[in-house]
Specification:
Radius of gyration: 21 Å
Bound molecules: shikimate-3-phosphate
CATH superfamily of the largest domain: Enolpyruvate transferase domain
Strand order of the largest sheet: 22-23-1-24
Structural class: alpha/beta
Number of domains: 2
CATH topology of the largest domain: UDP-n-acetylglucosamine1-carboxyvinyl-transferase, Chain
Shape: globular
Helix content: 25-40%
CATH class of the largest domain: Alpha Beta
């Protein structure tokens, strides 16, 4: 397991080998939640056993669902059908996970129960009105702090009305919260997306037997009160986690790394597209479909990177990959321009601010505005300590930067890495990195 406390990433030689990324975090949350409202026993394989997903498992148990770990990554959920959750006796602690909190608020909004959700200092500072506002339209009530943040109490409705909701921001979490509320609602729930986001919820709803239509103009329609039936779920490797070893191979000369069994959902592959445009040598092999999701093995062989402009239209498909892209850009020739990044300010930390400050501290030329980041590449100096700010991806991004920098990079606390990538340090060191804890 990746530990707690300080870590140091020393400059290292070429990285080589094959690794398997941990289970996809987005798919893992959805598997536990949907299995809980399907009828019967669902077996889940490849579940991410990171802290975020364990928070979802604990919450489902507190809501009356039997959830059992049967082996490494293998879990069994005894679902009670749509509308089958029961009132929890205590506050639900969602830890660091925005996805867990927002999707669960969606499910709970149309159950006749009252529940209070909280989380760590990072999650308690993240916006929740983006879900409580549309969920109120179903008839649920929300009581919480000024600003609508956690801790937040949802009083679910026993008489929900279906909703048509046009998302003001492209957010798979908000889309999913509305769709999950639509499950225990008669009639048709409709969500309209301004631009496409990951569709794991839609795919998994269909996998369990719901009728979900995705139309070309961004309209998603769910027929309410479906009979969801337990089905085995195989969770693919997380492309957001895979992006760290792949990016490490992209910046350390002579490297060649394969990550096997990675989910290739079209709403998640923006980083691969961007690295290819920068000149990275990436091949995808053994493409297949597992449990309704496209999967493949990704190999990246080192080559020189050149700066690119990343269009705002690509942001949703790589929303979690900007910290590691900014690191790759710090090694590319020229200035990489990224725009349309306002959402990065409300992730586990203000990722735009964290990357700009951290890269500047490492000696990289960087410019930041409200929603843009410009990074001029070279060979970063490193030689500093970076604060991880309760943000796993900030911690991992700067550990990767240390691998290719002139001097080591320290991280004040790598505990947050366990939310999405337990075992990150061991896996990177097996590929040839020199990270000490
Ligand atoms: C997620 C969606 C994204 C992403 C998050 C996981 C999901 O958030 O940043 O890590 O599982 O739906 P938004 O959809 O709010 O941008």
């Amino acid at each position: 397991m990746t530990g707690t406390g300080r870590a140091v990433s020393h400059p290292c030689g070429a990285l080589h080998g094959e690794a398997r990324a941990p289970g996809d975090k987005s798919v893992s949350h959805r598997a536990l939640m949907l299995a809980g409202v399907a009828v019967g026993e669902t077996r889940i394989d490849g579940l991410l056993e990171g802290e975020d997903v364990l928070a979802t498992a604990a919450a489902m148990r507190a809501l009356g669902i039997e959830v059992e770990r049967t082996g490494p990554g293998s879990w069994q959920v005894n679902g009670r059908g749509v509308g089958g959750l029961t009132e929890p006796e205590d506050v639900l602690d969602m830890g660091n996970s925005g996805t867990a909190a927002r999707l669960l608020l969606g499910l709970l909004a149309t159950h006749r129960l009252t529940a209070t959700l909280t989380g760590d200092a990072s999650l308690r500072s993240r916006p929740m009105r983006r879900v409580s506002e549309p969920l109120s339209r179903f008839g649920a009530a929300f009581h919480g702090r000024a600003g609508g943040m956690l801790p937040l109490t949802v009083v679910g409705t026993g008489f929900p009305v279906p909703v048509r909701y046009e998302l003001p921001v492209a957010s798979a979490q908000v889309k999913s919260a509305v769709l999950l509320a639509g499950l225990n609602t008669p009639g048709e729930t409709v969500v309209v997306e301004p631009s496409p986001t990951r569709d794991h919820t839609e795919r998994m709803l269909r996998h369990f037997g719901a009728s979900v239509q995705q139309e070309e103009d961004g309209v998603v329609r769910l027929t309410g009160e479906p009979e969801l039936v337990a089905r085995p779920v195989s969770v693919p490797g997380d492309i957001s986690s895979a992006s760290f070893p792949l990016a490490a191979a992209a910046i350390v000369p002579g490297s060649r790394v394969t990550v096997a069994g990675v989910g290739l959902n079209p709403g998640r592959i923006g980083l691969i597209e961007t690295l290819r445009e920068m000149g990275a040598d990436i091949s995808v092999t053994d493409e297949r479909v597992e449990g309704g999701e496209p999967v493949g093995d990704i190999t990246l062989a080192w080559s020189r990177l050149a700066a690119v402009d990343v269009p705002p239209s690509r942001v949703p498909s790589m929303i979690d990959e900007f910290p590691i892209l900014a690191v790759a850009a710090a090694f590319a020739e020229g200035t990489t321009r990224m725009s349309g990044l306002a959402e990065l300010r409300v992730k586990e930390s203000d990722r735009l601010g964290a990357m700009a400050a951290g890269l500047a501290a490492c000696g990289v030329e960087v410019r930041e505005s409200a929603d843009t980041l410009e990074v001029t590449g070279g060979q970063p100096r490193g030689g500093v300590e970076i604060a991880s700010r309760l943000d796993h991806r900030i911690a991992m991004a700067f550990l990767v930067l240390g691998m290719g920098a002139r001097e080591a990079v320290r991280i004040d606390d790598i505990a947050p890495v366990a939310t999405s990538f337990p075992g990150f340090v061991g896996l990177m060191n097996e590929l040839g990195a020199a990270v000490e804890m």
